[in-house]
Amino acid sequence: MKRNVLIIGAGGVAQVVAHKTAQNNDVLGDLHIASRTVSKCDSIIASVHAKGAMKQSGVFEAHQLDAMDSDAVEALIRKLGVQIVINVGSPFVNMTVLEACIRTGASYIDTAIHEDPAKICETPPWYGNYEWKRREDCAAAGVTAILGAGFDPGMVNAFARFAIEEFMDEVKSIDIVDINAGDHGKYFSTNFDPEINFREFTGTVYSWQQGAWQENAMFEVGREWDLPVVGKQTAYMSGHDEVHSLAANYPQADVRFWMGFGDHYINVFTVLQNLGLLSEQPVTTAEGLEVVPLKVVKAVLPDPSTLAPNYTGKTCIGDLVKGIKEGQETEVFVYNISDHAEAYREVGSQGISYTAGVPPVAMAMLIANGTYDLGTMLNVEELDPKPLFALLDTIGLPTRVKIKDTDMTWDQSIS
Ligand code: NDP
Predict the structure, then answer these.
(1) What is the pLDDT, as a whole number, of residue 203?
(2) N or C of the chain: less Cβ packing under 10 Å?
(3) Which of 36, 88, 90, 257 to mutate to test the pocket of ligand 1 (most atoms within 8 A of CB)?
(4) Which pLDDT does position 186 carry in this prediction?
């Protein structure tokens, strides 16, 4: 049994993680949240108490932390006696937090691949540039590190394994489709950190097809999808974390990621990019002020966490997996539907943060009870998905399966 959790970061996803860990503090024990700006941690804890989210009375404390400083993270882990770290800070802090976990033996969970602030879109496979270099160290220290454990990456990796194991003898392709059919009512906003969001789309679009990395430009390849609940939607092939681990674990399959975008988003994005305002490289103004254009854009756009109160509509995120079963071609769509307004009512967040924040808490609960405490570094598709689906059915993110015209829960689909 592992207990006591440290949440790192105090943004939109951390808000969800805080509420969900509080709702399950009988399993997870003492709760702590640490971030750069401690007042944001205080506000999150206040919202947890305002919703009466703590399942039983217990500790929930805020701490100031620079997570880029491994020594500081290590010291905090030791001082608080936490055994599980849920890192939902900026992806720039992943490797320093992981280092502290390796030193202390605490389990590590994150929801995005590590990024170097000065580099965009490094060579594939992206996990090979940072995280996987520490795999042997995790194994040697017996540290469980679950990488990319949000929704996408995260649940979509589990969906792929489930579809392949349950319904196929041979997998041919994995297409991950992320549609947000919600409306936040703003002229323009990203759904999570604008800096991270734009960095995803300014580089090369890497996909894994015909056993090799293929390169495209953003918005070069688009197609219409007809999906449950959200209907017909156009999505564009995009670079994304999960392609880089699924391609390693299922090299025989084509692996692509598709993100839904409206024309308005594409127009604004294109203007910003063509003007150079999405660059991560510093420029100097006439007044001698050095600024990073991307950080300036972030500063003037809405804080994604402020979108939640007025967000309406639903998300549909899933995997269309194609393969061969008993000599016949087959295809399965494994997916989840989430509702922005319901997420706000429950935890005070919009649906994108909700879908990203609930899975790492489920992972923490499965580490706490030993199921996922495997003492090594793992991407989500390397874990048995069924305990995860079963738990998520009960804590807010049910998994559904569509096979031809039949739509059912994941457990009905295999009974
Ligand atoms: P936010 O930008 O809202 O929050 C990031 C938090 O990290 C902020 O509170 C920020 O502090 C904190 N932070 C940044 N640098 C440091 C530092 N050096 N030390 C301590 N804290 C720091 O992001 P989100 O909540 O939207 O996203 C969190 C993570 O989740 C990101 O990695 C994102 O990529 C990932 N994500 C994953 C998804 C998935 O489905 N897999 C979907 C959406 C997001 P401050 O408040 O001071 O700025």
Answers:
(1) 84
(2) C
(3) 90
(4) 94
CA distance 15 to 116: 24
Q: 153 preceded by cis ω (within 30°)?
A: yes
Domains contained in the chain, number: 2
DSSP, res 172: E
Tell me the whole-structure pTM to 2 decimals: 0.96
The greatest distance separating any two alpha carbons of the chain, rounded to the nearest whole angstrom, comes to 69
- Ligand 1 pocket list (CB less than 6 A): 9-14, 35-37, 40, 65-68, 88-91, 93, 111-112, 150-154, 192-193, 196, 304, 352, 356
How far is the C-alpha of 375 from the C-alpha of 5, rounded, in Å? 17
Mean pLDDT of the chain: 96
- The residue ranges of DSSP E strands in 52-127, in sequence order, are 60-64, 84-87, 107-110
Query: How remote is the CA of residue 415 from the centroid of ligand 1, in Å?
Result: 39
pLDDT on residue 119:
84
Q: Is residue 49 part of a domain?
A: yes
Q: In angstroms, what is the span from residue 275 Cα to ligand 1's centroid?
A: 26
Ligand 1 atom nearest to CA at 67: 19
- From CA 344, how far away is CA 352, in angstroms rounded? 11
Could you tell me the residue range of the domain that residue 11 belongs to? 5-150+351-398
**CA 158 vs CA 171, 330, 368: distances in Å:** 15, 19, 19
Q: What is the pLDDT of residues 165-205, one digit of tens each?
A: 999 999 999 999 999 999 999 999 998 888 888 888 888 99
The CATH number given to whatever domain includes residue 221 is 3.30.360.10
pLDDT more than 70, % of the chain: 100
Cβ atoms of residues 129 and 222 within 8 Å: no
136, 24: one domain = yes
174, 232 Cβ separation under 8 angstroms:
no
Output the residue whose Cα is nearest ligand 1's atom 7.
89
Averaged over 64-71, what is the pLDDT?
A: 98
